[in-house]
Here is the input.
Amino acid sequence: MTTRLPLPPSLYADTAVAPVATPPLDVDKTVSIAIVGGGYTGLSTALHLAEQGVEALVLEAQEPGWGASGNNGGHTNPGLKHDPDQIEADFGTELGRRMIDFSYGTTNFTHELIRRYQIPCEARQNGTLRAAYNEASAAAIENTAQQCIRRGMPVTYLNREQLREMTGTDRYIGAMLDTRGGDLHPLSYARGLARAAISAGAKVHGETLALSLRREGTRWRIETPRAVVHADKVLLATNGFTDDLWPALRRTIVPVFSSIAATAPLSDAVARSIMPTRPVLYESGHITVYYRIDQHNRLLMGGRGPMRWINSPSDVDYLMRYAERLWPELRGVAWTHGWNSRLAITKDHYPHVHEPAENILISLGCNGRGVALSTAMGAQLARRLIGGVKAEIDMPITGIKPIPMHAFWPLGVTSAVIAGRIRDRLGI
Ligand SMILES: Cc1cc2nc3c(=O)[nH]c(=O)nc-3n(C[C@H](O)[C@H](O)[C@H](O)COP(=O)(O)OP(=O)(O)OC[C@H]3O[C@@H](n4cnc5c(N)ncnc54)[C@H](O)[C@@H]3O)c2cc1C
Here is the structure.
C-alpha cells in the first residue's frame, strides 16, 4: 500500500479550485489505453483520447497535478528551447517546419482548450518576454526574434527604454515579446484538465503507483498496489519523476528542481510599477529566472534553487534578494510561500518521444517549458496511440539513449547553478 504524499507547500495548494475525486484503483481492469502519470501530459492525452471515444485510464502515484504540473511558474510559452533555424537544421525542412508550427502553436492550443472546457484557472494571454541583460544574450535574442518574424509570427524585439516601461527596471537591454504567451494557475489548470478528462469519459485514479510493467500475452500488464491493469497500449508520462518502469528511461533525463517564491498581494501601485501590462518574463542568463504578477497582484519569482525539496521562501532567499535588486520598492514586502518541484532536462534540450516496443509510447523532457507544450503533446500522443505507426506526429520519435555518466549529472547541475549565479552577479 502507498499513502498519498501531500502537495508541496505552494501558493497554488492554498488557492486552487477543489480537486475532482480520483479514488485509488482497487479492482483489476482491462482497458484500451493505460497512462502512467497524471500531469498535463497524461491528463491531456486522456482527454483527447476520451474525446474520440477511446477508453483511457490514468494511474497517478499521488494526485493529478502533484508533480511539476501543479507547481510550476504558470507561464505558457510558445516554442521549444531551440531557435526555429536550429530546429530546421537539426530535423530537416519537412519535420523541422512541422515542429516549429506545432511548438509555437501550443499556447493558442492550450488557451483555446481552457476556453472550450471553461477551466477556471486564471488564464490570460498577455505575452511572453524573453529578456537579456548582457550584450551577448541580447544579440542572440534579437536573432531569434528575426527568425520568428521572418516566419510571420507575432513577435517583436524590444529595446531598453521599452523594457523599462514594461518591467519597471532598467536591468534589461533587449527582449523578444511573443504575444501568444500568457499565464495560468497551474494546479487549478491540472485539476480542471482532470475534471474535463473525466467528464469526457476517461478514468483517473490517484494514489495508484504503477509498480511494474510487463508484456502478458497480447497486452501490457501494470501492477499497482491494489489491482492489476491489462492494457492494449500504454503511455508513460512521468517526466521528472520517471522511475524504473521502463529500462534505462530514468537515465535519459536529468531531473532538476526549480523553485518559486511568492509575495503577498502587492499594492496596485507597486504591481503596476513592476509590470503594468502583465506579460510573463524569463531571463536568458546563465541560470534562468522567471517571473510574473498573478491576478491577485502577487509576484511569483522562479529560478533554480537547492536540489532537494524546500518548504519556505527562506530556502530561496536569493530569489527574494534578486527581486529587491530589480525593484527596490519591494523591500519590506512579505514573502508568503517558497516551494519547488522537479522537471526533466534532456541532453539535447528537445522533448523526447519514444516507442521502445509495440504499443508502448513514452513522452518526457519538456525542459522547463511544458505547460503549453505538454498540453498540446496530449493531442499528438492521442493521435499516435489511436492511429499507430501510420499516424505521424509533429515531433520526432527517437530511440532511448541513456546520458553518458548519468550518475554525475546532479553534481554538474549544482555546480552549473552556483557558477551561473556567480557569473550573473559579476555581470559576465
Ligand atoms: C518549479 C517549476 C517551474 C516551472 N515553470 C514552468 C513554466 O513557467 N512554464 C512552462 O511551460 N513549464 C514550466 N515548468 C515545466 C512544466 O511544469 C512541466 O514541463 C510539465 O508540468 C510536465 O508535465 P508532465 O505531465 O509531463 O509531468 P509531471 O507534471 O511532473 O507529472 C508526472 C506525474 O507522474 C507521476 N508518476 C511518476 N511515476 C509514477 C508511477 N510509477 N506511477 C504512477 N504515477 C507516477 C508523478 O506523481 C507525477 O504527478 C516548470 C517546472 C517546475 C518544476
User: Anything to note?
Assistant: The first helix runs from residue 11 to 15. The CA atoms of residues 79 and 104 lie 4 Å apart.
